[in-house]
Amino acid sequence: MSRAERFEELRPLLFSIAYRLLGSVSEAEDAVQESWLRYTAAGAEPASAKAFLSTVVTRISIDVLRSARVRREEYAGPWFPEPLLSDPYQDPARAAELADSLSMAALLLLERLSPLERAVFVLREVFGFGFPEVASAVGRSAAACRQLAVRARRHMDEGRPRFEADRKEREELAARFLDAFREGDVDGLRELLAADVQMIGDSGGKAPQWAERIFGLDDVTRVLVALVPPFVGIGGVVEPRQVNGQPGALFRDRDGGILNALTFDIHDGRIQTIRSVANPDKLGHVGPVADAWAVLRESQRACGAEFDPEAPVTQIT
What we know:
The chain is α+β, with helices and mostly antiparallel strands. The chain contains 12 helices and 6 strands. InterPro entries: ECF_Sigma-70_Domain, NTF2-like_dom_sf, RNA_pol_sigma-70_dom, RNA_pol_sigma-70_ECF, RNA_pol_sigma70_r2, RNA_pol_sigma70_r4_t2, RNA_pol_sigma_r2, RNA_pol_sigma_r3/r4-like.
């Protein structure tokens, strides 16, 4: 097998590691490409291409993550990972770990870890690397990696909800929610939302967005019901999709352009959190990005409202 063939065989794994470390599709792809360049420049073929490339992509990602933390602290409003519609790496033996680690909620928990803790957790808990492999990848001793793993697991466990819905329950509840959402069914929405439900939006200041955070059953229901009629009336589409391994949805304009991606946290039979990624810089890998401001203006004209670019949006995204 040629070096290029070995790399292509490992590319899905490398991307999946990098994405979980960085929360960014574009940065993960750049890390994988840089790994290829270093692999081609390595001289003699490494004893294990998997070990070599996993180490390289991990170290590149750690460096990127350290610099990204400063940018994220200066980010306009809440920061969410870039939505991912499908994970290229499939391993039936670790399917549950892979799916759980891909969710928005899990990726946001990973943001609480130090770069080294995050790398150790992802390699060990998600991908099942042995501690000698993890130690080699992050440049620490196996004993130090064990301590990092313990701290990372503790932080992750502290942030997880006590009661997780199973996949079938999540899919059924999300489907019922989207049906009620599209129909503007107030009672149906209220049955599916938790009393302390919250909606959080990541627009990065670059797209119309509801207020950054909306809390409580009444306010969230009011906003959701206000979204649909003007949006659907101008040909907008709410498309159910798996987003980051969880039931979610894409908003598209009449031409199929992407406006935003929704994900849901579902616990104890109710939707607890609705997250929206509307920053166009985070959507280009999903497909052509729509002009969200133009869609907003058109939807407001359709319902007789006056367009105000300074007002919090409760219309389309």
